[in-house]
Amino acid sequence: MAYPRSFLGLCLASFMLVAAPLIAALAYSAWHSERLAERSRSAVFNASQAARASRTLVNRIGSLERLATLGAPGVSPDLAKVHASFRQVAQELLQLPLEEDQLAALKRTMAQEQGLYDLLTGPRSGQRGAARRQVAALAADLADNASEVLAISTRVADREVLRLRADAESVQRQLVLLVIFSTAVALALALALTRHIARPIAELDAAIRQLGGADFGQPIAVRGPDDLKTLGERLDWLRRRLVELEDEKNRFLRHLSHELKTPLTALREGAELLHDEVGGPLSASQRRVVEIMRDNSVKLQRLIEELLDYQRALHAAAALEVKSVSLQSLVQEAMRSHELAAQAKGLRIAVDAQAATVEADPEKLRSVMDNLIGNAVKFTPAGGNVAVLARSTLDEALIDVIDSGPGVPAEERDSIFDSFFRGRAKASARVEGSGLGLAIAREFVEAHGGRISVLAGERGAHFRVSLPHRKAA
User: Fold this and answer.
1) Partners of 223 in the beta sheet?
2) Are residues 389 and 353 in contact, defined by beta-carbon separation less than 8 angstroms?
């Protein structure tokens, strides 16, 4: 099925196709209604004509009977007029759609009237005796048939009403079937055209999701109207441009790492040699300068490595290897790697994890837990408390890391997950850091469709990770 040139044209064409069976059904209904109205007008006309002609014919029969009874001279002109009028009205009745018995009764009446007229106008019309008795008998029979002639109008009207009712019921059944059929056809066309219209929209959505997932390897091609094809071509251009930018960024990071690490390594080695007094003994002031150089070179190297790790973590957050992860095992493994540091500071550790599972990437979720527990151990003063809680609710899994350290000020809770942010608590505790750990943790949690936040507490820091049981598509 070919697409129109524009998406608007596609929508208009689809609307016309869906409306076509409904319009056809409406036109067919109007045509049938007009036919039914024409039949009703014809029925009313036939009934009125039958009633008028029947009454007129009965009147003419009465006139003939009176004239036949008189039998006086000078009656012949009036008799001729009544006879002519009778024949004219009878011919009008014959033009109507009469049934066979009605037609037979009318013809019989016409024959009797013609016989009576012939007797009254014949050469023996004035003779008495048998001819007079025959005239009286025909007049009596003609009078008896007057009731049958009068019943013609009623029967014609009844028959037309019945016929009209049957036609109306037939039209009603046909229209009901037509409405059902046209509605079914319209719905089928609407479903088919909806899929046809939604296909390029779905391809655009898939292309945007592909770009959002940092999957730049697959070309983007959108089928559909020209304007949507053009939009797909622009998205593919954007994909190629992002590939170029990604390559440039990676080259920049590699070059930066190489260009910084090479002189930094030489600087560290020189500081170590001076510290070991390879070039000769150092005075106390010289030793302090060398120690400052060595410490800052180590700090600079760690910052460079953390920056590179952060870039790799951002790229890794777009590609999750989701598996079924046990919260209890995850918390215990993450806590086990920090036990020595906690024991060295005399911290009291409390772990309360339910035996629940969550669909997640175990490596990235373990990185989140390592970061949160590591910060708790790092910022909690000696002899403090660290608690890790993990539980499952109906909709999500909750992991809480609570410590008795200085906590997070209320004004910093919205900024603590920003890259390179270092709050006042870190500075006061004299704990060095790059400010990237919580930023990486947030990227990993949000990649799972969850959220990480700082909760208000009376003392210490309270971090909470909320994860859906199944990652959203």
Assistant:
1) none
2) yes
Burial of 147 (0-12, 13-18, 19+ CB in 10 A): exposed
Structure tokens at 367: 């990185």
What pLDDT is stored for residue 309 in this prediction?
Answer: 66
Position of tokens 């009844």?
158
Q: In the numeric block, which tokens belong to residue 455?
A: 């909760």
Main-chain dihedrals φ then ψ at residue 403, nearest 5 degrees: -130, 170
What letter does residue 444 receive in the DSSP assignment? H
Q: How far apart are CA 232 and CA 56, in angstroms?
A: 85
Tell me how far apart the alpha carbons of residues 398 and 354 are, in angstroms, rounded to a whole number: 10
Between CA 329 and CA 358 the distance in angstroms is 12
Q: Which two tokens stand for residue 392?
A: 């499952």
Q: What percentage of the chain reaches a pLDDT higher than 70?
A: 75
Please check whether residue 19 is in contact with residue 182, taking contact to mean a CB–CB distance below 8 angstroms: no
Phi, psi of 97 (to 5 degrees): -75, 85
User: C-alpha angle with apex 436: 431 to 437, nearest 5 degrees?
Assistant: 75
Ranked by mean pLDDT, which of 160-164, 227-231, 259-263 comes out on top?
227-231
Pairing status of strand 462-468 against strand 396-403 = antiparallel
Report the pLDDT value the prediction gives residue 123, as an integer from 0 to 100.
Answer: 61
How many other CB atoms are there within 10 angstroms of residue 335's CB atom?
A: 21
**DSSP-assigned letter for residue 381:** P
Counted residue by residue, the chain has a size of 473
Instruction: Report pLDDT digits (tens) over 227-244.
Output: 888 888 888 898 888 888
Cβ(2)–Cβ(10) below 8 Å: no
Residue bearing tokens 């945007």: 208
* H or E element in which residue 403 lies: strand 396-403
What does residue 220 show for φ and ψ, rounded to 5 degrees? -105, 120
Does residue 357 contact residue 325 with C-beta atoms inside 8 Å? yes
**What is the SS3 string spanning 305-338?**
HHHHHHHHHHHHCCCCCCEEEEHHHHHHHHHHCC
Res 269: pLDDT: 82
CB 73 within 8 A of CB 148: no
